[in-house]
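Subject: sequence -> structure tokens, single chain

Hey, anyone have a minute? Need the predicted structure for the following. Not urgent.
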Amino acid sequence: MKTLLNYINGNWTASASGEYVKVTNPATGEVLGEVTQSTAEEVDQAVQAAVAAQRAWRLVPAPERAEVLYNAAHLLKARKEELAQILTSEMGKVIDEGRGEVQEAIDMAYYMAGEGRRLFGDTVPSELRHKFAMSIRVPVGVAGLITPWNFPIAIASWKSLPALVAGNAVVWKPATETPMIACEFVRIYEEAGLPAGLVNLVHGSGSVVGHAMVAHPGIDLISFTGSNEVGKRINAQAGALLKRTSLEMGGKNAVIVMDDADLELAVDGILWSAFGTSGQRCTACSRVIAHEAVKDALESRLLERMSHLKLGNGLDASVQVGPVINRASRDRIDSYVRVGVEEGAKLLGGGKPAAEGALAEGHFYEPTLFTDVKPDMRIATEEIFGPVVSILPVGSLEEAIAVNNRVEFGLSSAIFTRDINRAYEAMRDLDTGIVYVNAGTSGAEIHLPFGGTKRTGNGHRDSGVASLDVYTEWKSIYIDYSGKLQRAQIDNY
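Reply:
Had a minute. Here:
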């Protein structure tokens, strides 16, 4: 059994608390290891190390910083299968998805390493003679990263890589459920040549470690991915300290299926988006807004395909749906299914935990489909974070867009249609940060911004060049070589 430790200032150490939490495989109940549970004291040690290391790191030329990221990318690529196996063991997603997630970290590492020779600012004409004007990016300082268990290495890569290439240091609290992959990622940074103190890993609970990170004056920004409830608390606490926050919190994503859609393609997209990662994605499809002309045909095709989905241990390559993360999550999903039935939605398939035979020791929930769901029902408005899909009938594209937009989240949406005019209208009017045409709601690429509108976040984005805006400040620079005082607008006119 592995003992998983903190990594502070280049050293692997246990917390002084002496407390540990077991790490288990959610598919089998097997205990994989134990992880140290830290206190505010370890957070302070990590911050002090980060502050000291960042003073030197910010002076390293960005192309040189990028070399460490290239090294990390090569190591991630070489160890892709090993990392995917670890990820699936402690998180539960099927092995193909585990490999895909590690590939996302590889892609992000190469992409952000390339930004080491870019990190573009602007040069602009000055309004005065003999004067030069430009803007540049500078690092914020120390970034506090709080990451979830559902994409434990991909989301960590979205946050840590742009932070580092931009010249910051990092204090990282991974999810308690997935500390093994976090430790492996830090070992890769270590082997890639990252100087001590620039990445510090502190395991522990959100109430202790997360709270201490948000409150610590040495941490200049918090980047958080997780629940809306926790994100709001972080925003309130950090806001009182005038601390920058980047929040990505949730979704209630919908696939619109129009009357001219390719139904087989739509079913493929819905199944992948709804039941990939057992519905435990912020981009998961939890609503299908179906035109009434194709609703019945769509339902029958979905039910038929759902009946063949194989549940089980994600390490088995034949398994298509793995477990949910823990018993509490399974119980929460089941409570929402009971709410849907009580609200009057029609349960077509699934609707209960799967605990027979080989599934008995894990946390499995049957892929579940409701129909005749009304837009104001709780199962149509609240994030369930599990393999539960609701079909909402509509009579037109305008109604479909209105139904999509009425929820409080705005992360991802999709439309299946053969009509180019409808597609462009949807792209314009769907109020989400991500829009897909003839594809499901999941599958973001790392070179585009990731994030959403409304209560999904607070306007910042992970991934792509936009992520650099989180980890940099803009500095405007004016160079006057006139030999006299020029007072901008006063002397210009």
